[in-house]
């Protein structure tokens, strides 16, 4: 600010790029600089987490919006814990490990499968899946194991998988596939979408690699085949679409392309490639998805959320977190499908640079926004968020730059210590389809809320509706 005012006063024509470079707060040009930057962003993000304060609920960010408690749905707490598990793994900074362990363990739910009663109203397979992926990551990264009398990381991931593999979650509409929502009375129960199935595919492929149990691989492969056959992955462009509705046999495909859908499938396919010891089929899938993803989701070298980012203020608090997953998941792909590293790492480097270039906001001069490709800080309040998603994505982008020095995800045979339990304690029976309390339409919520709204109309309609909502 100051410098550009001076320059203008001095009669110089100053380019936007120059004034931004001068205002830049963060550096990521060395390992030390990356660590310092990541640790500062991790600190700032933690200020927005109230879960470890007296009287607050561990594990969640302020929310849910449907109850006017804050901007964040339940699943975002799980995604944030995963972001810190990666942060610790990549930087070695243990500062937040206790907070993270406490937060995850508080949210495991009554049956230790990430379906806590409190969050029934936003319980999608994807919401549950994000917590499951975080538990899986804790096992793979060798995050400190919980005390013995608490549920263990691997068992938690297996429990999520087992509830999702159970026949009670599957039916023959659209030839199979998981529905978006778990309780049948949640709005969105008639939508079968990519992210719900993508989470199940992703956890399954990782459990296959971690445990070498073929059952997981078999389900993962079936899920992939379903997603492919129903047409959610474009057979030409490899763009990944959002989903379709049961009354239409899932042929009314909502073609919005959210980056996390493409990234979750790419990472799942990468784990299958690694598990199968380099099967060509999986290698081709990784390569095709990756090429499409890199082509479509980066603008001017920066991660870009295609369906909403073109207009300021219309990406939801959910969508604002997707770039972070793209960075975290692709960096692991580079480890487990080694030939992809030379394609992935430079893209992530450039994008992370763009991310920190715009972390120049507010009094601290280092607040991060969401619009990486613009090169300028845009206040998170424009998107009606507190900034937790913006920080989460920036933290992911910066810490993932250390992937080359990080250990690849372990397995039971390569150092993993987490204790499993084949079904993680899940023994059939009530699998969450029956809500314990009546659900009102106002309760509808969750990791894919936008997918529901998009399913009912064009993007423009949705955009308009979200303006009207606030
Ligand atoms: C919550 O965690 C943060 C980060 O570790 C820490 O600075 C803060 O003191 C904790 N608050 C409480 C009440 O424990
Ligand atoms: C459920 O809500 C109660 C009451 O607010 C709270 O004490 C508890 O910690 C919550 N549990 C979870 C898992 O969020
Ligand atoms: C529904 O779509 C699937 C392909 O996803 C197709 O195999 C099936 O025949 C269709 N069913 C009906 C009733 O049209
Ligand atoms: C699987 O991943 C490991 C890293 O964990 C890597 O060393 C190995 O080469 C990968 N396997 C294949 C077939 O690429
Ligand atoms: C890991 O593998 C060993 C040897 O096959 C087995 O005894 C152990 O139960 C496995 N651990 C888990 C967590 O599956
Ligand atoms: C493999 O996983 C399936 C699904 O959880 C389980 O039923 C089976 O017992 C497991 N097999 C072994 C050998 O652990």
Instruction: List cofactors, ions and other ligands.
Output: 2-acetamido-2-deoxy-beta-D-glucopyranose
- What's the average pLDDT? 90
Please report the number of helical segments: 17
Give the biggest beta sheet: 2 strands, antiparallel
Number of strands: 4
What is the straight-line distance between the termini?
Answer: 31 Å
The SSE order reads HHHHHHHEHHEHHEEHHHHHH
In one word, what is the shape? globular
Poorly predicted runs of 5 or more residues: 1-22, 435-445, 449-470
Strand content: under 5%
Task: Describe the structure in your own words.
- The protein is mainly α and 470 residues long.
- 48% of the residues lie in helices and 2% in strands.
- Strand 3 and strand 4 form a beta hairpin.
- Helix 13 packs parallel to helix 15 (388-399).
- The model is unreliable at 1-22, 435-445 and 449-470 (pLDDT under 50).
- Bound molecules: 2-acetamido-2-deoxy-beta-D-glucopyranose (NAG) (6 copies).
């Amino acid at each position: 600010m100051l410098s550009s005012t001076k320059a203008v006063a001095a009669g110089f024509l100053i380019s936007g790029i120059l004034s931004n470079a001068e205002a830049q707060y963060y550096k990521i040009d060395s390992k030390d600089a990356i660590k310092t930057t990541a640790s500062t962003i991790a600190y700032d993000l933690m200020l927005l987490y109230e879960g470890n304060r007296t009287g607050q609920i561990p594990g969640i960010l302020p929310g849910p919006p449907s109850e006017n408690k804050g901007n964040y749905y339940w699943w975002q707490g799980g995604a944030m814990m995963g972001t810190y598990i990666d942060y610790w793994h990549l930087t070695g900074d243990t500062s937040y490990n206790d907070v993270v362990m406490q937060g995850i363990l508080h949210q495991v739910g009554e049956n230790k499968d990430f379906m806590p009663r409190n969050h029934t109203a936003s319980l999608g397979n994807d919401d549950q899946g994000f917590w499951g992926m975080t538990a899986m990551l804790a096992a793979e990264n060798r995050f400190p194991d919980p005390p013995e009398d608490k549920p263990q990381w691997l068992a938690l991931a297996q429990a999520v998988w087992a509830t999702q593999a159970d026949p009670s979650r599957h039916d023959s509409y659209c030839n199979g596939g998981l529905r978006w929502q778990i309780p049948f009375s949640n709005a969105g129960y008639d939508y079968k979408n990519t992210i719900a199935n993508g989470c199940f595919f992703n956890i399954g492929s990782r459990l296959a690699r971690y445990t070498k149990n073929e059952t997981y691989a078999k389900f993962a492969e079936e899920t992939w085949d379903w997603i492919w056959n129903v047409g959610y992955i474009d057979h030409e462009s490899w763009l990944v679409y959002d989903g379709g509705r049961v009354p239409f046999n899932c042929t009314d495909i909502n073609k919005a392309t959210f980056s996390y859908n493409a990234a979750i499938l790419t990472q799942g396919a990468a784990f299958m490639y690694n598990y199968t010891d380099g099967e060509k089929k999986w290698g081709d899938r990784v390569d095709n998805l990756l090429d499409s993803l890199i082509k479509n989701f980066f603008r001017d070298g920066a991660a870009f959320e295609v369906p909403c980012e073109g207009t300021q203020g219309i990406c939801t608090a959910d969508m604002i977190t997707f770039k972070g997953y793209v960075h975290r998941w692709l960096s692991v792909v580079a480890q487990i499908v080694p030939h992809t590293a030379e394609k992935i790492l430079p893209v992530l480097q450039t994008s992370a640079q763009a991310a920190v270039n715009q972390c120049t906001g507010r009094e601290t001069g280092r607040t991060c926004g969401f619009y990486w490709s613009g090169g300028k800080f845009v206040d998170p309040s424009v998107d009606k968020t507190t900034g937790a998603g913006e920080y989460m994505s920036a933290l992911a982008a910066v810490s993932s730059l250390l992937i080359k020095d990080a250990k690849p995800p372990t397995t039971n045979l390569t150092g993993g210590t987490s204790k499993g339990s084949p079904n993680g304690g899940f023994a059939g029976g009530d699998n969450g389809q029956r809500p314990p309390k009546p659900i009102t339409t106002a309760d509808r919520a969750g990791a894919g809320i936008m997918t529901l709204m998009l399913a009912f109309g064009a993007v423009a309609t949705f955009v308009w509706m979200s303006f009207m909502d606030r």
